[in-house]
Amino acid sequence: MRKICIVTGSRAEYGLLKNLIKKIKKDKNIKLQIIATCMHLIPKFGLTYKEIIKDGFKIDYKVKMPIPSSSSKNITSATGLGMLGFSKAFAKLRPDLLVVLGDRFEILSASFAALSENIPIAHIHGGESTVGAIDEAIRHSITKMSTFHFPSTKEYKKRIIQMGENPKRVYMVGSLGVERIKKMKFLSKDAIEKKIKFKFGKKNILTTFHPETIGFHSQKKTFKNILTSLKKIQDTTVIFTLPNIDTGSDQIIKMLKNFTKKNKKKYKIFKSMGDELYLSTIKHSDLVLGNSSSGIIEVPSLKVPTINIGDRQLGRIHGKSIINSKSNHLSIIKNIKIALFKKNKFIYKNPYELKNTSEKILKILKKTKIKNIIKKKFNDINF
Hints:
Elements: E1 2-8, H1 11-26, E2 30-37, H2 49-54, E3 61-63, H3 72-93, E4 97-101, H4 105-116, E5 121-124, H5 135-145, E6 148-150, H6 154-162, H7 176-183, H8 189-196, E7 203-208, H9 219-232, E8 236-241, H10 249-260, E9 267-270, H11 275-283, E10 287-290, H12 293-297, E11 306-309, E12 322-325, H13 329-341, H14 357-367
Parallel strand pairs: 1-2, 1-4, 2-3, 4-5, 5-6, 7-8, 7-10, 8-9, 10-11, 11-12
């Protein structure tokens, strides 16, 4: 029986992986292993490993990556501790194959530990570009450690091949997040209001803002401009979700708490909303604002416009319902007004949407021979 191990470090990434995890668990020829790490195990982010258990999955190992604050020093230290923890986890679980998604530092730790143990890696959402975050370099590093690749678009597939990977092991499958939306039963607006104990306004905005972790961009100034703009929009409620652990995220959280405590009828903060509640809230919102990948990859399939602010997501392919905004106050408020009052005029075609994403991934993970497969040649391209 093939042992497939999935690593998850955050609420958002687990939501993307959930359908694939369900399919692996149901397969009688596969033993599912789950390792929870990083933000899942940190109290201020809601101890979201409990959501995994609530969904009926067993967590086989927890790798703690303590991060006292969001300084670059602490994140570097946590990355190193993560490698030690994953080394112990793999020694105990002995998986035949590791599945990882994305570009976070905890996934880098897991991937390097797996590479050292000669465990083949299947990487989901490789080949993407995010100029304003260190995730860019981490993502491409994981690509070079991986044996199997599951990019979401043909452009990302091409980029992985450009990095020297074997084209026969690069499979364009679309986005797991979009597949999740297509199969989800959404909560009604009334059900959401009861669950979160918060009333929607005439207009509603969901906001998530993460730090930009490359360059000398002033994230404090940008976030202040976002908050100032939101304050000026009348008859509108705003739901905030907390940023990921990145260098500078503590500063953003502090600013957010100070801002929202002044008007709790208009603003609401969530550590973690969970998959169903998060997507249902977006579906009943008029706008998604910030710089989250979710706003670019998933939100168009909910037929809600996104305002993407700054350079964190610069380079990521997006549809026509995404408004790229500069980080100054005038640009932000101008684009908010455009999005709120022209919602029905956007084109909501999503470049990340393909059918049967999780089924395609599972079929390859299940049937491909993996013995001695980790050794690979660099695939040169003739220019």
